[in-house]
Amino acid sequence: MIAPGEHIDYQQLAQQIKGWARELGFQQSGISDINLAAAGQHLNNWLNKKFHGSMAYMAKHGSARYHPEQLVPGTIRVISVRLDYMKTDLKPYEQLLENPQKAAISRYALGRDYHKVLRQKLKKLCTIIDQHAGEFGHRVFTDSAPVMEKALAEKAGLGWIGKHSNLINHQAGSYFFLGEIYTDLPLPVDQTASFHCGSCTQCIQDCPTQAIVAPFQVDARRCISYLTIENKGPIPLQFRQAMGNRIYGCDDCQVVCPWNKFTQHSAEPDFSPRHALDDTTLLELFNWDEATFLKRTEGSPIRRIGYQSWQRNLAVGLGNAHPTKEIIQSLKNRHSGASELVQEHINWALQQLTEVN
Predict the structure, then answer these.
(1) d(CA 212, CA 223)
(2) Confidence bin at 57 (pLDDT 50/70/90)
């Protein structure tokens, strides 16, 4: 513990922080300044094009998103951390896509809600820093506030923002979560990561709905992750067949990224799949009643979309499946008790399955 008035070696403290972060299970950490002018301009251009769809919160906080000192007064540095989540021993996501009866769920959502996991670890890291350096101004974030986490992580050297807008690390790919500590500690900053996508455009070519309209520009209104999670209304007709069996999120742009050949197996037990969500059928999930949905998604990021969106997504998935008597009967059985939104998607699914027959 630093005594009052005692000099702090911030160079040494920065290295200690990175060591403590590793001990807590983070794979990497870095430190950046708070100059996000370029990222702010990119954000405003994106907003002006209405690419955020119904995500009004993306514009709500104005310049505080790219001025950390406005969000947390006194902030002069940001400590960014990376936590890998992929379990490499699971059935590959692309194999699920090849079987239309299966449910394809984005790999990040299979286990415990990452917000809780990262926040707990970041709070522990802050406690350790406090014990060694004395009380300091700070606030912890993990995808839960107007924070430009990818831009900050890039400045902190954790990776570069790829053409699909995700962060890529040259030793670990892109299957990881990010977290931040805004702080008033004058720590030395790390070197910004360099760009290594080169001429590759695989993610742009392979997006099922052509949502990556240009390098670094994702039109959320076309993105399956947005459509199945953030969107609370109907899935636009033009994207339903392209959704296939993707019922929560979409990993396609990451699956085809060459850098993910370096994906590391996550040792974090909280990210292990729950209730066999890594390899189950659309029909089994569609047959969950609301009580079962709430019970089996407790502590999961999936729960926040609610039962109605869950049923809506699954109805679309079933409409794209191979028609069976069980699927058709299950859709019919659910129809009368479903909301108007879900009924419309069930009707679409039944029409699709009937046309196939």
Answers:
(1) 8
(2) confident
